[in-house]
Specification:
about 130 residues, mainly alpha, Arc Repressor Mutant, subunit A, 2 domains, about 5% strand, elongated
Length: about 130
């Protein structure tokens, strides 16, 4: 029996999504070809074969993270899900799986991980004051 398709993003799929999110900026529907995605990855120091990128884009379409926007070659794709949506979902899953749903444990672990800069500490204070 075939294993059900994973809804989570792999590291490579996430790399592809970052290209779309970075190119979108304030636009919500930046359209890119597979070649443009591959070129953007290469500029960032990540060399992948065109066929690998095409396969990853196809998988992201199947998982409903991207959609194809035209019917003629070269095919154009755009992101369906925003960075905020995906990162929030992934973070929520990680908090549940790793920290048993405890945001407090996550924050404590983050703070124990390394020394915060004064700027980071001030930003955290600001966020906590806003949330209070």
């Amino acid at each position: 029996m075939a294993r059900p398709k994973a809804k989570e993003l792999t590291a490579r799929e996430l790399e592809i999504m970052h290209v779309f999110w970075e190119r979108s900026g304030t636009e919500s529907t930046t359209e890119l070809t597979v070649a443009e995605v591959r070129d953007a990855l290469e500029q960032a120091g990540r060399e992948l074969a065109y066929t690998t990128v095409a396969t990853l884009v196809r998988i992201l379409v199947e998982k409903s993270f991207l959609k194809q926007t035209n019917d003629e070659r070269p095919f154009l794709y755009c992101s369906i899900r925003s960075f905020d949506d995906v990162s929030g979902s992934m973070l929520g899953d990680m908090i549940q799986k790793v920290f048993g749903g405890s945001r407090e444990k996550l924050l404590l672990r983050l703070l124990e991980e390394r020394q915060l800069s004064p700027r980071e500490l001030e930003k955290i204070k600001e966020i906590l004051q806003e949330k209070s």
